[in-house]
Design brief:
Chain lengths: 103, 87
């Protein structure tokens, strides 16, 4: 399974993104693309040493700054289902991946 | 080039990243940019005593990757120097 397909499944679910600078962004994915750019909402930013920075409503992360993305197992199963549906010929998702904002 | 990783799919691999972190996990997927998708990975830190941190599924960005190896027949030592950052 392609790593980017896992991001499909992670839309709308909580992820933990560590940047190359060591900061950790914990939030829900609203948007992701193949450059690994993210739009996150309900974000908590934590410094590498563990001093909590702050909580922000919405942010955009440029993909080249990402070190890794931790996803939940439900996101993986969701990605598997999307992949299997695409195989069955219902068409793969095209273009950018969008998710609805959690209220 | 990245198709060389086909033989590593669903196997236990060891990964070193540019920040000197050492991950062990099952390689579930990769792409042309060598972004990796690992399931049930363990982050091993040497401080110098070994410390294992379990993570769930993780996507590692390709440009932070230094090394991938098959972890078949070696066991990790309990103690060791910390891996330096590779810039």
């Amino acid at each position: 399974m392609l790593p980017m397909q896992v991001l499909y499944g992670a839309i709308g679910s909580a992820v933990s993104i560590e940047l190359k600078s060591g900061e950790c962004y914990n939030g829900y994915i609203q948007y992701a693309d193949y450059y690994m750019n993210f739009k996150l909402y309900d974000v908590t930013i934590t410094e590498a040493e563990g001093d909590k920075f702050f909580h922000i409503d919405e942010c955009f992360v440029r993909g080249n700054n990402v070190k890794y993305v931790r996803v939940s197992e439900e996101a993986v199963t969701k990605a598997e289902n999307i992949r299997l549906e695409a195989k069955r010929g219902r068409g793969a998702p095209r273009g950018r991946i969008r998710g609805s904002r959690r209220s | 080039m990245a198709s060389q990783l086909d033989t590593y799919i669903n196997k236990q691999v060891s990964i070193i990243t540019t920040d000197g972190k050492f991950y062990t996990g099952t390689l579930k997927g990769f792409d042309q940019a060598t972004n990796l998708f690992l399931s049930s990975s363990t982050l091993t830190l040497y401080n110098p005593l070994r410390e294992d941190i379990q993570t769930d599924s993780i996507i590692i960005r390709g440009d932070t990757l230094v090394l991938i190896g098959l972890q078949e027949s070696f066991t990790l030592p309990d103690e060791g120097p910390p891996i330096p950052q590779i810039i």
